[in-house]
Design brief:
The complex is a heterodimer of chains A (about 230) and B (about 280). Chain A contains twelve helices and no strands. With about 230 residues, chain A is mainly alpha-helical. In chain A, helix 4 packs antiparallel against helix 11. The two termini of chain A are about 25 Å apart. Chain B folds into two domains: about 220 residues, Rossmann fold, CATH 3.40.50.300; about 40 residues. Chain B contains ten helices and 13 strands. In chain B, helix 4 crosses helix 5.
Chain lengths: ~230, ~280
């Protein structure tokens, strides 16, 4: 990897991101939801479910969707080949793009938490958990982005990722019976591990979350290898 | 001739299909080499092998001292300029932003953007979004992108395909200037007029095999018919074997006011291609 080339890709993709209305407006989604729920009452009493719903929406709609769309667009318009044929390595390209979506997600989340006037005194475990969750969403987006050939196809993958991994806490509203098999299965989804860490648990949720990160990394690496191997 | 590109017995199979079958050629330093053939003849596959996009199945390929195992490595691609059949630009960005991206990736000097834009006569379009440019302008910018870092070897896959004659001529002038600066150019085309104007050396590719190669004039000479054609005002054309044309026939034709054209049968490169391959160039 080369820092100069990563920053060059970052600059290019930052311009592209801000000029692509579909991507640029995605950073508004968590902010709008935060605005809607911001006046729900005492900020110290905001349920963890709501906090992590916004985190999940931000990560799935900006981090995953952003990197997925950017990669798919490069594929669709044949610009990726030009980058790959330059001295930039595929890792330079992926890291440069990931930095753009990470920055946009961070800005969106920061604005959302400000609107909700949230107490942000998170501990090291919470922050580690959030970083792992971010890696999971990023890897998933990279994996799909390297696989699909057009922007239109990304929605086929994005929708289930958003519903299952981004909107996980909504399941509590849809299925209120805690013994329901779907509710029990959902307990192992990544976002619930962050909620458990936030509520004081540490070891088991962190292990489960790490496992999700490993799985998503394997998927991204597999897609990467498939993409690099031409005829 | 110092060979910059050497290809020997190159073979490429896609499954059971043989796309290239024992291809051999050499390209000398500073030459323009044209790989000519109809669609599906293997031109793009050859180009893709040399630019590291496709692996070879057999034979050897060497470019600038790099063997096919090195193709795709950063040190190798830095020496190349590539315009492939599906190269494209970032539509939402300006011409300058597009070129700036590749200037930085290749570590070329800041002045190069201005230089290459002047070279192609597009300095005034520098701050325009790429989406607002015509197809011909985009193609010229793509060539700018390919030569920005002063590559040793320039690979161009159908550089003027589907462009209007004026733009095509501009690009030809550009390529001759680039060649004049010492760059070796390998291009694929199915446009024989283009090959005649640009190439120092051409190879005819058909069904994955090179059927003949050489300098365009030499090829035309070696495939000429030994015939002289005399065209009359009435539309009648009389053809004579060169051996049977004597001073009498020639003088009579020259001073006959009904004769409008006398020419020897010197085939165009397209006609030579058809003779060699038995195929039209489409």
């Amino acid at each position: 990897m080369n820092a100069g080339r990563i920053m060059t890709i970052f600059e290019k993709d930052f311009k592209e991101f801000t000029r692509n209305m579909m991507l640029f407006t995605s950073i508004l989604l968590p902010v709008l939801i935060a605005f809607m729920y911001g006046s729900m009452g005492d900020s110290q009493q905001i349920p963890s479910m709501l906090i992590f719903l916004i985190v999940g929406i931000a990560f799935s709609s900006i981090l995953t969707s952003g990197i997925m769309t950017m990669m798919a667009e490069e594929n669709e318009k044949n610009t990726l080949r030009g980058l790959v044929q330059s001295p930039a390595s595929m890792m330079d390209i992926l890291v440069g793009k990931s930095l753009v979506v990470t920055l946009m997600t961070a800005v969106s989340l920061a604005v959302s938490f400000l609107i909700m006037d949230m107490d942000m005194s998170w501990g090291a475990m919470d922050i580690t958990g959030i970083i792992l969750l971010g890696l999971f969403f990023l890897n998933s987006g990279i994996g799909v982005g390297l696989t699909v050939k057009s922007v239109a196809t990304t929605s086929v993958y994005l929708l289930p990722i958003m519903l299952i991994f981004g909107f996980t806490p909504m399941i509590e509203i849809i299925i209120q019976d805690e013994t329901h098999i779907i509710r029990q299965a959902a307990d192992y989804l990544p976002l619930y591990q962050n909620m458990a860490i936030y509520d004081g648990e540490a070891l088991v949720p962190m292990l489960i979350l790490s496992l999700w990160v490993v799985l998503s990394f394997v998927y991204a690496a597999w897609s990467f290898k498939a993409r690099m191997k031409d005829a | 001739m110092t060979a910059v590109i050497t290809v020997q017995d190159l073979t490429k199979r896609f499954g059971s299909e043989r796309a290239l079958d024992g291809v051999d050629f050499e390209v000398g330093r500073g030459d323009i080499f044209g790989l000519l053939g109809p669609s599906g003849s293997g031109k793009t596959t050859t180009m893709k092998i040399l630019t590291g996009e496709v692996e070879i199945s057999g034979g050897t390929a060497e470019v600038l001292g790099f063997t096919d195992r090195d193709f795709g490595r950063s040190a190798y691609v830095k020496q190349l300029g590539i315009l492939s059949d599906n190269s494209s630009l970032y539509d939402r960005l300006t011409v300058k932003d597009n070129l700036e991206l590749f200037r930085k990736l290749y570590g070329a000097g800041r002045h190069r953007i201005q230089e290459v834009l002047e070279h192609v006569g597009l300095t005034e379009q520098r701050d325009k979004k790429v989406s607002l440019l015509s197809k011909g302008m985009k193609q010229r910018i793509l060539i700018c992108k390919a030569i920005l870092h002063r590559p040793e070897v320039l690979f161009l896959d159908e550089p003027t395909s589907a462009l209007d004659p004026v733009t095509t001529e501009r690009i030809h002038d550009m390529l001759l200037t680039i060649k004049g600066q010492g760059t070796t150019i390998m291009l694929t085309t199915h446009n024989m007029a283009e090959a005649t104007v640009l190439c120092d050396h051409v190879a005819f590719l058909s069904n994955g095999r090179i059927l003949d190669q050489g300098r365009p004039d030499n090829l035309r000479h070696s495939y000429k018919n030994n015939k002289i054609h005399v065209t009359y005002r009435t539309g009648i054309i009389k053809s004579y074997e060169r051996s049977e044309v004597n001073k009498n026939i020639l003088e009579t034709a020259l001073f006959d006011s009904n004769v409008i054209d006398i020419r020897s049968d010197y085939p165009s490169l397209g006609e030579v291609f058809k003779k060699v391959t038995g195929r039209e160039l489409v």
